[in-house]
Amino acid sequence: MILAIFGGSFDPLHIGHIEIVKKALNELKIDKLLIVPTYINPFKKRFTAPANKRLEWLKKVFENKKKVEVIDFEIKQKRAVYTIETLLHLKSCYKNIEKTYLIIGADNLKNLQKWHKFEELKKQVTFVVATRKDTKLPKDLKKLSINVNISSTSLRDKIDENFLPKTLKDEIKKYYIRKKMEQRIENIVTILDNKKAENIQIFDMKDKDYFVEQVIIASTLGEKHGLALLDDLKKDLKDESFLNIDDDNEWIVIDLGDILIHLMTPEYRSKYNIEEFLSEREEEMKKLREMTLEDLS
Fold it and tell me: What is the pLDDT of residues 82-98, one digit of tens each?
């Protein structure tokens, strides 16, 4: 039996990964291709989509692909797993293995010799590098030319559905957009909390016919504190676009396009009570949706 192993975070899964699988099946003359999603990459500290979600997407995309099997070994360990450990496990599961290909991306080459027990790994596998046609490789390395110029990192930064699997593009796109919003909100709340803002509240206004998706309200300790919080947000949120700032002493409003931040003195917050307005807006839209569903039924 000739095996090929293709591991990675697949965070998110994209058409470049699918192209690698197609090329491997067509060019490597293998009996089986094992796709092994990581729980977490040993060289990274975090992931965006949880392991079970990435596993689910892989199984959906490759469920009817002959010779392809998605392996959950690393995910079941719930930790970073070295490639040599996965290799030894898979070799114990499949008998009469004559040759094993290990498919890696060209971006892994610079750190390849840092991999755990690299010398032992090198003796047991033949490396296959998935790369674009214009990338030069050492002559002793086998290559799969992949004509897709995309990476999971760039997709996480800016989701482009053209690079997502057709059958899952809506699901994956929605997931990462929502996750990115959650991370942005978390960053803002962390900054405000660390700088002593009080009574921080978040209102999800998406699908509620409001002009932003999220509203954050926080109480300041006074006028100077509000201006200090504004400066901290400007300094720490370097990736955000501050479209408009209304910096009245007692009530500062920051417009990030899809997020609105209110920094208010306790007196102003009590006087204008915008929390009540936002809560009523949520309740109104909930009733409207329920009425619409009743009409449809």
Answer: 999 999 999 999 989 99
CA 55/CA 45 separation, integer angstroms: 19
| Antiparallel, parallel or unpaired: β 214-219 and 198-204 | antiparallel
C-alpha atoms less than 13 angstroms from C-alpha of 64 in its C-beta half-sphere: 0
Cβ contacts of residue 140 below 8 Å, gap of 6+? none
254 contacts: CB under 8 Å, gap ≥ 6 = 230, 233, 242, 244, 245, 260, 261, 263
Residue 5 structure tokens: 């192993």
90, 3 contact by CB (below 8 A):
yes
Do 212 and 66 have their domain in common? no
Shared-domain flag, residues 232 and 122: no
Q: In which residue are the tokens 């002493």 written?
A: 249
Final residue in a domain of this structure, among 147, 170, 193 = 170
Domain carrying residue 215: 181-296
Exposed e or buried b per residue across 127-145, where buried means at least 16 C-beta atoms within 10 angstroms of its C-beta: bbbbbeeeeeeeeeeebbe
- Rounded to two decimals, the pTM is 0.83
Q: Do 265 and 193 fall into the same domain?
A: yes
Q: Which residues contact 253 (CB under 8 A, 6 or more apart)?
A: 244, 245, 246, 260, 261, 262, 263
CA–CA separation, 50 vs 39, rounded Å? 8
pLDDT, one tens digit per residue, over 224-236 is 999 999 999 999 9
